[in-house]
TrEMBL record:
Residues 93-178 form the Metallo-beta-lactamase domain. Gene3D superfamilies: Ribonuclease Z/Hydroxyacylglutathione hydrolase-like. This is MBL fold metallo-hydrolase. CDD domains: DHPS-like_MBL-fold (cd07713). Pfam families: Lactamase_B. It comes from the Bacteria. InterPro entries: DHPS-like_MBL-fold, Metallo-B-lactamas, Metallo-beta-lactamase_dom, RibonucZ/Hydroxyglut_hydro.
């Protein structure tokens, strides 16, 4: 979730960078792949007028086949849904072998299923689900996905803190976030795999980072209103320690890093992925950067400075990145930045 409350110096001190809990696995041999396709099933925006390019395919309006009596034909064309949430299908190819995973599941129970249908995407070949963290705007569509998949067990990688009760409380109101239920997800057919450490999937060609090292001096995490229940009471939860990213290494190109909200800080995440894999080149960075609102806007400039040094070939910020950060990123990295939108597919290859 995004919060727009100003953080105090005390809040910043509470959320100062700290090492990740546990022992990092370093280095990790991440097997290179020939191609990665990332299809954004759900994002905060949908723009039917966006134009694709060599590595980006856009989705416009579909055929005029939706019932609507106010038109002479009795039908109208619709686009895709957009909501405050994120979900992406990630397909990796090595030779002639392809594997597809779902990374996050959007906000609403039916959103990702509706968009998949409008895109003509079958989810029958889905081979696993990865949750970036436990916030409800990344897990709301899991019930709809379970209904679509029917019987059978679908593996799902989560951090054990994804079940944490959380809320946003300030002087004016309290918002209790919907909390994920492990029991319910098990009952719906998901095979829960809890990991705090890095995980290698798809024959070693997909890395799930697990907990991310917090090493920068500017990515301080969530401000004081973001709280978590710790058994005896509510406490400030700056770190969202369950935040994790998905990483793939394209042969001869570099890393592709996909974030959900980037609560660990996108620069922390990229540097963590580089350290774990030993691969320094960043080919693409996609997903939520969580730079929206007054509490995070001071992080925009140092984030852009660090990204300029890293020099990714493609950057596609979405979801909770925020309009100020989007404008600044587009101005600073014009050759790399592209606008995100529900229904966009990024095809990234070694050639």
């Amino acid at each position: 979730m995004c919060d727009t409350t100003h953080a105090s110096p005390h809040d910043a001190a509470l959320s100062a960078p700290r090492p990740v809990l546990g022992t990092a696995v370093d280095p990790i041999t991440l097997q290179p792949v020939d191609e990665v396709r990332v299809t954004v099933l759900m994002d905060n925006t949908f723009d039917a007028l966006l134009v694709g390019d060599g590595h980006t395919t856009r989705t416009g309006f579909g055929p005029a086949a939706t019932p609507a009596g106010q038109f002479e034909s009795g039908q109208t064309a619709v686009g895709l849904l957009a909501e405050h949430g994120f979900s992406a299908l990630v397909t990796v190819r090595r030779g002639d072998q392809e594997t597809t995973l779902m990374f996050d599941a959007g906000l609403s129970p039916s959103g990702i299923i509706t968009n998949a249908d409008r895109l003509g995407i079958s989810l029958d070949g889905l081979q696993g689900v990865v949750l970036s963290h436990g916030h409800f705007d990344h897990a709301g569509g899991l019930g709809g996905l379970a209904c679509r998949l029917g019987s059978g067990r679908m593996p799902m990688i989560v951090h054990p803190y994804a079940w944490t009760r959380r809320r946003i409380q300030d002087s004016r109101s309290t918002f209790d976030m919907p909390t994920l239920s492990k029991k319910a997800l098990n009952g719906e057919g998901f095979e829960i795999i809890e990991r705090t450490q890095p995980s290698l999937l798809v024959d070693g060609s997909v890395l799930i980072t697990g907990e991310v090292d917090r090493t920068t001096d500017f990515e301080h995490g969530m401000p004081a209103p973001h709280q978590a229940w710790h058994g005896a009471g509510w406490q400030h939860d700056p770190h969202v320690i369950d935040d994790q990213a998905l990483v793939v290494h394209i042969k001869d190109r570099g890393l592709v890093v996909l974030t959900g909200c980037g609560h660990a800080g996108v620069i922390n995440i990229v540097r963590h992925a580089q350290r774990l894999t030993g691969v320094t080149a960043l080919h693409a960075l996609l997903g939520g950067f969580h730079l929206s609102g007054p509490a995070f806007e001071p992080v925009i400039a140092p984030t852009i400075a660090a990204l300029s040094d890293i020099a990714p070939h493609l950057i596609a910020p979405g979801h909770c990145t925020g309009w100020r950060a989007q404008h600044a990123l587009a101005a600073a990295l014009p050759d790399a930045w592209v606008a995100s939108s529900s229904g966009t597919t990024y095809r990234l290859t070694r050639t």
